[in-house]
Design a protein that fits this description.
Order of helices and strands: HHHEHEHEEEEEHHH
Strand content: 15-25%
Number of helices: 8
Oligomer: single chain
Radius of gyration: 22 Å
Mean pLDDT: 80
Shape: elongated
Number of strands: 7
């Protein structure tokens, strides 16, 4: 069992005995630790209904370790990038949106493809099967569990480019770019932690490029009206708007390399 081999089942003969068990600090401590351990162990079909925050309020003395937070996991390089050398260009700290704290909002999902070398989970596969899928990855399974029917989803890859035909002067620097291939609407979440059913729109004839504000995570959730950069990316990916490249390149994080002088 997920709870471990040392799990004990306590039974009470009457209400008074049950109240005694619930008042026992050792029982309370063991129950709190069990619930928290199960919630953070791995994705399961019930993950969507877990609420670690509620457990923390009831048992404030049993805090989740920072090491257990999926948000603290080191981002791996996107192996689908068709470049030998890849440089991680991170966004500004204040653009990292923790969607788990946003409450009941509409989320927009930007997702990746599988490694090209594997031949799995490519754009053609998504279209043919009417789904989006990633290889199982404990760091992102909980995010996939958060995907709901009716929410928009877009497929992209990320790379670095030294091309000179960009819509701004790169001044000799490499530029992070996301290539968007496909978008649609989630229709079903089967609860396996690595896939959703999707009604795809016709794929873009040529990939659409979005520069600088990028992520190579296989699952990236965005919400409107949280940050201007996120709003710009959502407008580009889902509303067919042009990227406001002047807004992005003049942000403090990129201004020294790409901003107006």
């Amino acid at each position: 069992m997920d709870a471990g081999g040392d799990l004990l089942c306590l039974k009470s003969k009457d209400l008074k005995a049950l109240e005694g068990l619930l008042a026992d600090p050792d029982v309370t401590a063991a129950a709190a630790q069990l619930v928290l351990d199960l919630m953070r162990k791995h994705f399961c079909v019930y993950t969507r209904y877990h609420c670690p925050q509620l457990v923390q309020l009831v048992y404030p003395e049993y805090r989740r370790s920072a090491d257990d937070s999926q948000e603290d996991a080191t981002t791996q390089l996107d192996s689908s990038i068709p470049y030998v050398e890849s440089v991680s260009i991170n966004a500004e700290p204040d653009t990292n949106i923790d969607v788990e704290e946003l409450g009941d909002v509409d989320l927009y999902w930007i997702v990746g493809c599988g490694p090209r070398a594997s031949g799995r989970n490519q754009v053609d596969d998504f279209i043919a099967k009417g789904e989006w899928r990633m290889d199982p990855d404990p760091r992102y399974e909980a995010k996939v569990a958060d995907m709901l029917p009716g929410e928009p989803i877009a497929v992209r890859t990320r790379r670095n480019t030294t091309a000179d035909d960009l819509p701004f002067d790169r001044r000799g620097h490499r530029v992070s770019v996301m290539d968007f291939y496909l978008r649609g609407t989630i229709t079903e979440n089967p609860g396996d932690g690595c896939s959703v059913r999707v009604s795809w729109e016709p794929p873009f004839t040529t990939p659409r490029q979005y520069y600088l504000y990028t992520s190579q995570d296989p699952v990236w959730a965005l919400a409107r009206d949280v940050h201007s950069l996120a709003d710009d990316l959502i407008g580009f990916a889902f509303d067919d708007r042009k990227q406001d490249i002047d807004l992005v390149r003049n942000r403090a994080f990129w201004a020294d390399r790409f901003g107006d002088r």
